[in-house]
Amino acid sequence: MAAIQAARLVSRRAHVLPGKLHITELFFEVPKSHARPEAGTLKLFGRSVRKHERPITPLSASDLAAKEKVPYMVYLEGGPGFGNREPQNHALTHVALNRGYQVLYLDYRGTGLSTPINADSVLAQGGPQEQADYLKLFRANSIVRDLEAVRLCLTQDFDDEKKAWSIFGQSFGGFVSLTYLSKFPQGLREVFLTGGLAPVKRTADEVYTATYKKLIERNAAYYNKYPEDIPTVRRLAEHIQTTESDGIPLPSGGKLTLPLFLTLGLAFGGHGGLDEVHSLVLRLATDLDQFHTFTRSSLAAFESQISFDTHPIYAILHEAIYNTKQHGAPPSNWAAFRVGSALQPFSWLCLSSDQHPTALARLESTTTTPPASEPLYFSGEMVYPFHFDGTAGPELARMREAAEVLAATAEWDEDLYDETQLRRNEVPVYAVSYVDDMYVDFELARETAALVTGIRVRETNGWYHDAVRSKAEEVYGVLFQLRDDCVD
């Protein structure tokens, strides 16, 4: 493996939030392809944060330098596809600062302010194959090389014992952390994971086979909590199906179709997610009662729940995070669609492109119970071909051909994980794993935990996937307890 070159620091701007935090905005330059540095560069954006203190007496130059050389903790966000929140709005900031770290929030390549992925930048690469080849550069194997390059840049004048840094991976950030452990363990002091024990040994088909089971449980929980929504959801579905043949126009250019409506279950995996979906269902039903149509504000509220068009990297690389050279895995080939279509509760998937009879009518024909009493099940975080047909918005539609190439890709340049390295791992790893995780299957997470030497895991059925935000104080307490408590 070729040595990683330090990132080039392009700009640095420091700000102080009075009495609180010292925040530095950083832009770095890294190779677009670490294997081919001559192919051009990308920009990475991050914010580092440390305590802002007003000393009683002025600090010497050496003291000021020492304050800037506090060991780093790097937060790795979920997704893929979303940039970081401002440090002052992140619960990790004060937890880490109080424990002696400075924190770096680095937007992955393609997200936030780090040379983001959009239709224009993708189409500028050439034809569909060239577009897909460009998108392949935004997977975890490139992300960890970026991270290592930034580490080398920021810690080049640190004492040797402070050069390695700690990372904190939430969800997809945990997947990235396991890739980092596989490829550059020498750069890591310790690793914290929440809902991020990636299914290292499994194909996309196996992953979705597992997660659909949990999704069925969450749908049952939803209708058990809100039984009145069984007929209400069907009523909304009927309206959507009969109002416009190709879908109800959405404010941002997409189309509200029955399949898109039934992707609202994405929210079911978080704390309060059942209530969020019910509130939107109630809002849409109230529109029909009062106006016999959906209002613009309600359609905008719906769009806010389905944000793939404004974060396209999430949709276009979602299945690619499971693609690997290991185990002779086949192309993902729209695994979520194929697996779901074979399950009766999600039979509406195979109707998403049918023109006749209506999707709802065909769905009703597959059931033996009266339509009014049969619940329509929502899908979860899965991404489907119809997301790229213009339904979910014009940005994704422009990248449909590239998405098709990625779905058909069997050959990937590199494995994301090294199971041999994970088995001989020496970096301390502390993880929280959720029994009722709808996105990262608990049993597959257990399988991965058994693979990683030196990991300590707290398993719980008391929290959901977003607990690092919804239950932050408790989650951080558990993780640092795992780190601080010795085991004989």
Written overview of the protein:
InterPro entries: AB_hydrolase_1 (IPR000073), AB_hydrolase_fold (IPR029058), Peptidase_S33 (IPR002410), Serine_prot/Carboxylest_S33 (IPR051601). Residues 73-207 form the AB hydrolase-1 domain. With 488 residues, the protein is an alpha/beta fold. 40% of the residues lie in helices and 15% in strands. The strands form two sheets. Strands 1-2-3-5-4-6-7-10-11 form a nine-stranded mixed β-sheet, sandwiched between helices. Strand 1 (8-17) and strand 2 form a beta hairpin. Residues 354-370 have low confidence and may be disordered.
In short:
This protein is an alpha/beta fold and 488 residues long. The protein contains 21 helices and eleven strands. The chain has helices at 61-67, 91-98, 119-123, 128-135, 140-154, 160-163, 172-183, 204-225, 229-243, 258-261, 273-291, 296-305, 312-316, 335-341, 359-365, 394-398, 400-407, 419-423, 442-451, 467-470, 472-484; strands at 8-17, 21-31, 41-51, 72-76, 102-106, 165-170, 188-194, 248-249, 255-256, 429-434, 455-460.
